[in-house]
Each structure stands twice: as C-alpha cells, then as structure tokens.
Amino acid sequence: MSADHDRKPLPRAFFDRPVLEVAPDLLGRVLVRMTDDGPIEVRLTEVEAYAGRIDPGSHAYRGRTERNAVMFGPPGHAYVYFTYGMWHCLNLVCDEEGTASGVLLRAGEVLTGHEHARRRRPKARGDNELAKGPARLATALGVDRVLNGTDVCGSDEDAPLRVLAGAPASPGRVRNGPRTGVGGEGALHPWRYWIADDPSVSPYRAHQPRRRRTRLDAGPTEV
C-alpha cells in the first residue's frame, strides 16, 4: 500500500461492524493523539473485544448508565473510563448504534512523539514499554475522561484523536486468546488479539480478586 493510503483516516464504516471483526482488524493501525506538546503516533499491537449486553465482561452488560453512555452511541468514538482510582483506559466504540460494543486498546508501539510519551511515562525501561498495557498506553498519550466521546474518524489533523489506516497486521501474525484479567462467565472468551512476537504486547494475566493497584502495570481490562 502507498504511504498516502497508510495516512488515510479510517472511515466510520470501518467501526460500524461486529466487534469481533473490528478488533483484530485494528492491529497494525495507527492511533494519532494530538497533545499540547505535539502529536504522538502509536501502532496498535494488542486489543480486546467487548460485546456489550451479551458479554459479562463488558461495562454495558447490565445496560446503559451515565458512565457507559458513549458505548451506546454511534461507532467511531472514544470511550474513556477511569478505574481503580488511578488509571484511564481508551476504547473505540464499534458496531451499530445501540449495541454498546467496544475495543479496548491494550498496547502499541510508539512511532513518533517518543519524547512526549517519555515525559508522561518516565519509569518506562525502554520505548517498547511506553504503551505496553492499557493504562500505560492511555498515560503515555495523555488520555483522560475529557476525551470521552471524541470522534476518531475525522480528517482534521489537529483533532485530539484519529485512527489511520496504517499497515494492517498480516493474518499469519495475529493471535487470539482469553482476555487479560476477566473473570466469571466471560473469562474464556478468546477475544484478546495481538501481533505475535511484538515486544510491545503486554503479558497475559488471569483474573485475580480485585485489589487496589499500587503501581502502573498492565492495567485493568474490563470494558
């Protein structure tokens, strides 16, 4: 594909599909975060799918609330939530309006804006750890609840969030398995997708009883 195509924003139709189609297709795409310091671009390497009212692991499983309202809106918007009293997580709403499906952005490779990301993640031991886990990704990009509901499908280069076509991961390198930290009935859904052998992918962790996090680790997973 041409460089021009790689820089083309993904259209809303990309997100207006079932979540289990959108999630693996996001691997290799480029998330652009425009900050006050300048742009940060991240190649997505790990995501998780959450299927709304049919998914016990989803924030929307029990219906609409003030917190999850964005998930019930049109596709192609950001759903940002705050968890454990410490971390934000960034998700992309997909499927038709009212289904409340979303994809959690779990990890990525920082392509540009390393200096801006490092300023927010000074304890990262290397560039591969800047966005290695959903809380780390959101922190590195300066994502918080202010961005909840942001349209990610616009063409304005100054928009706070956009998703570009990038270079989709080769199907042969896409892996899937249980979602990190999800318990109960949704524990075995193989809806975590990642690029095999990519060093920015976060380690898998099985569900553990909830406790307060004391450091910035791979982060929470339920969406």
From TrEMBL:
The keyword Hydrolase applies. Gene3D superfamilies: Methylpurine-DNA glycosylase (MPG). Belongs to the DNA glycosylase MPG family. GO terms for molecular function: hydrolase activity, acting on glycosyl bonds. Its EC number is 3.2.2.-. It holds the Pfam family Pur_DNA_glyco. This is Putative 3-methyladenine DNA glycosylase. Residues 199-223 are annotated as: Disordered. It comes from Streptomyces chitinivorans. Keywords: DNA damage, DNA repair, Glycosidase, Hydrolase. It comes from the Bacteria.
